[in-house]
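Lab notebook page, bench 4
Experiment: in silico fold of construct C2
Operator: M.H.
Input chain length: 483 residues
Purpose: comparison with the prior construct
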Amino acid sequence: MISKKTFAILLVLVAFIASIYAPLKILPIKLPIYYYSSSPYNTLWNGTSEFYNMLKEEGYEVYLLNSMSDINRLVKVNDSFLYIVIAPDRPFTLDDIKLLKEAIQRAHHASFLIADENITSNSLLMTLFHAMISGLVIKDPNSPYGPLFPVVKCKINDTEYTLVLNIASYITLIPRHPGFEEEFFRFLCTYEGKPIVVYYMGEDYEGIIISDSSIFINQFFKEEYLNESVPKRFTSIENKQFAIDIVKVLTHGDKEYKIIIDCLHYKALGIETLLGLPIPPIGLIISMFLTMMVKALDSMYLSLLSQLPLIMKFIALLLILFLAYIILKKLGGKHGFDEGIYRRIETSILLETELPSRRMYNVRYLTKKDIIETLASLYEILRKIALKELNLDFMKIDEENVLKRFRLIFKEKSDRALRAIRKLRKIYEYHIGKRKFIWPPIIFWRRTLSKLVLDSEMILETMGATIMGKPGVKGVEYRLRKI
């Protein structure tokens, strides 16, 4: 039987070959790498690559600004441009703002779109709009998605949009004279009377300020990310359409506008960090070489197959599969998975998760055996506390009366909790020898550990306990001592 490690390598090989024939993204992959910022180079959930792609598909001329001096080359006399800033990591300097002002002076028309929930953009906002981001987080206790994810209504012209914000802030206007707000600003969206989206209409330029950058990230542009982060929709989510229509407003529907996305003020991945990634720069070169080699072999293989009868083609396919199996079996050694970024804010807390007789300082160094032991121990903790606090036996969770009571206790969280408990139970039974294998197989154990610890924390919170040291909640050690 093929081992799990060999099976994992086979999946990677299939994915690699499939990627060769997959259509290229509009946005090329290039260095430096912006894996944790809202850069259009970032194709993960928190990047804006899909927003960039959408602008290209709409027919706009889009430029990525990596040097402020390039603004002189991009914006010529009598050009019209839209300058976009989304959640920068570094503030704008006086020299940066000076170059932007010069571009405004020589342009026919200038527009700005600035989306930021932090105070990083304030130097630019104060200079151009006499506005700033407060940095205070909006909390909506009535939001169905959680207090940090308010649902707001925003209106552009006669169209109303339902937006789900993601850790947003407020906009503060600094009036230059009485009536300044009414003269230059139009509030498009407010929360409790405080502006979240404002439209500035000045003599030399116009702009829209949004105190939440998440409207433009891939989470709301790519359906798979949205389904993963918001599996259950309580409201319509029109963030993507709102982002598209904002651009149309600021360009007045004119595709001749040059759209310039600021990438200069993002922090790029440093060389010292890059060398710690699973695929360092040399890996990119090797990958390109392997791609060329596979394509050459593929051409030879297809040319040979075209000359063979059908039965010989079938035999050749079987021989290739058998050869691939033998190679993978020989190469199947110790392999690991280093998950650089897990799409949950709380994951950083995993570095200090406490369980009996074990303290995990870095999940990257845990072996598969360590992870299985940890998760089996976690299941025992959950089971003991559930028996004591709720009189529920998780070993009998599939029995009708137990399951019905479980759903009454966990309510809307019951599906997520049930999936976690069933998976933990399988791992526990595998650990004690009751199971010979786990089905479906677990390929990425570290990712599974991250997810199950977070799910277990949610289960423990319902039972009045915590493994993450949350304030005001008793730790599992206290609950276990009671048992």
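Observations: Confidence is low (pLDDT under 50) at residues 20-34, 271-281, 332-361, 476-483. The chain has two domains: 34-268, 345-482.
Next step: discuss at group meeting.
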